[in-house]
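User: structure tokens for this one?
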Amino acid sequence: MKALAVGLALVWLAVPNAYSATCFDVSRGEPTHLEGQLSFRIFAGPPNFEDVQQGDTPEPGYVLTLAEPICLSGDADFADPAYMFDEVQLVPTEATATTMRALRDRMVSADLTNPMPAMTGHHHRPLVAWVAAIAPMSDPTKNYGSAATTVEAFYTALGAGDGAMAASFVIPEKTGKGPFSAAELSRFYGALREPLTLIEVTLVSENEFLASYTFASGKSVCNGKALVRTEIRDGRNFIRTIKALNGC
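Assistant:
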């Protein structure tokens, strides 16, 4: 029995670990892209970096929880390829801060820049990286064949500040003047401090959709939701009404 146990142990050691980590070389700017669940955390800062309820300064931040562990190489002092971990500290940039706030507790896909191993007490996970772009993970085919694609196109045009393009997806009688006119849409959405980013369009009922988005205007940040109703004209979908559900 002992011989059998030793033999099995040797076989186990010879087989790669099913949970072996993918190692990223930080000296080469890796990783550049990760996916996982985004969560908001409050870390403990100075003086002891242990517990905010015992007098340490609160340091708010974000963590990305990965489906599989990773490891780091490329830095002899701070990266140990033998150490596996599944949480990464993400730092928002000016361009991604609003979107990250809206995507808390969601599965996301993030493009990263300046990845670095933890070096100080302010680095609360083994890997710290800045977020260049971030988006929710979803099935890109779920809206095929529905009016949701028209809603997506409308908000995508707003994100580009193109009022004329956005207005082309609205029923014509509402675009001559007022808030759905090309000029008014371009004036507002083209001058935002942080452009509109569409988070998601979901079906509520037939020809009725819930759009989630973010943008920043001046000092105000909008994590918005709107109820969008569509109608078909000559076989094509158009937006008929939009009702903002939280003031923006």
